[in-house]
Amino acid sequence: MKILLIEDDPVHRSFLKEMVTSAMPECQQLWEATQGAEGEQLAREHHIASVVMDLQMPQKTGIEAAKVIWRERPETAILFWSNYADEAYVRGISRIVPHDAAYGYILKTASEEHLQLALRSLFIEQQCVIDREVRGVQQQAQDRHFGLNDLEYEVLQDIALGLTDRMIAQRRNLSLRSVQNRLQQLYEKLHVHEHDHEQTANQMFNLRTRAVHIAMLRKLLNSTALQQAEVELAKWRQQRQAAALNAAPPIHK
Amino acid sequence: MKILLIEDDPVHRSFLKEMVTSAMPECQQLWEATQGAEGEQLAREHHIASVVMDLQMPQKTGIEAAKVIWRERPETAILFWSNYADEAYVRGISRIVPHDAAYGYILKTASEEHLQLALRSLFIEQQCVIDREVRGVQQQAQDRHFGLNDLEYEVLQDIALGLTDRMIAQRRNLSLRSVQNRLQQLYEKLHVHEHDHEQTANQMFNLRTRAVHIAMLRKLLNSTALQQAEVELAKWRQQRQAAALNAAPPIHK
DNA sequence: GTGCTTTTTGCGGGAACCCGCAGCTTTTTT
DNA sequence: AAAAAAGCTGCGGGTTCCCGCAAAAAGCAC
């Protein structure tokens, strides 16, 4: 039995190592990686079936690393060990987990027993182990009236990136008006208008930026999610520009 | 000699304790607090002159706790031990440190020797110890052309909160146009216009939200800074409303 | 004081945003 | 198949935002 740890913080890494060796005596080989790319590499080379990783890492996010690992070996069991239960992370993970894979999500605040139990359940019984708190977020996100659906979440990201309505329309293949509709729904669900009705015609908030801010407070967005969204935006911009060049007839005039 | 540790994460706390006891044998009493308020309390009761604290904590930020402690006993030496060197934190600290107090800022990624040396220098020699990286941020923040000055930083926060131009003007006692001037400078410094000049009249970005996003990427803002800004905004709203009520003549009609 | 820079303010207009209304298409329900 | 729900689209207009231009106002040298 082989296990791989991916964790950048040395303090946490040594703690993790301690936990794993004591909870899993049947583990014969234990690898450690200090960042995502290195972890992918090790998993690939040694055909590792059990991974524990941190979600927050510089360079390559845990989510990105997990995506790569699962693409190559979808049966890998991955335990995410994270500081936060932000909706951005939870969403990110549910988006990439293969539907027959076993995985777990444990908060770093969990007790040692809890962590060790999770390790055994997941790696030996192949049973999913999701922290209570995370479950809560997962469900809340699916609530029809409280949570945002994928489309709303998409525009939320887009405006958080700073895109214009017109650009969003272009990117998502929609009309301008449709984008604005989505935005209205978003504003509705985030209760952007709270306390704002005060007598005066004075609007207190710019809805667009206020929505982003509220989303940050509610942990619907976080900075790593935005960083990732930014690189996807860059990709899109690139291919759009390429398409524009091809479409444009050779200019002679 | 008495030392107080304020750190919420148990793993880091035990590590810190280890470091302190080995680096400071002259330390006779060592207190530990798991959150800001508790730390303030202990510092007050026991007249502690040397504190080590984490910056990122739930409930009460390290910065808020430090503010309180320094207000009561400005000669206290405080070592901030933090995961990040975000400009938001650095700014926050320089804003509150008494001008004759000794303090330090060490990143959690620093080596054990580094940390121990810092502890001795600060608590025994009363000498400020600032991490290289943090220094870098500090200087960059003061650069006339790259960094934001306080006024620009202020509007940045305000738009990040989602305020309207008009509201910002009201809050900061400025004319509408002045606010917009500040915003223009801000956009300039953040290079919001990059690559945007492409031939078409199509603006790619909404400058306001784009600026916020870029600021997040550059760590000029972070979520805890915004949370704090939000409560200050709430305060202002409250007193503004109170003022409005007093100003309004008793309505009879 | 006179000059100089920096900051603040007003005016005006083009663009973007927010959104009610109404018609159209697609999906879901019955 | 008919009805209902949900989503997409265009139109129009009220508001806010972004910013160039230019004139006061404040700060700072000499």
TrEMBL record, chains A, B:
The modification 4-aspartylphosphate is found at residue 54. This is Two-component system response regulator. It comes from the Bacteria. Residues 2-123 form the Response regulatory domain. The keyword Phosphoprotein applies. It comes from Terasakiispira papahanaumokuakeensis. One of its GO terms (biological process) is regulation of DNA-templated transcription. Keywords: DNA-binding, Phosphoprotein. The keyword Ligase does not apply. GO terms for molecular function: DNA binding. Pfam families: GerE, Response_reg. Transmembrane segments: none annotated. The lineage of its organism: Bacteria, Pseudomonadati, Pseudomonadota, Gammaproteobacteria, Oceanospirillales.
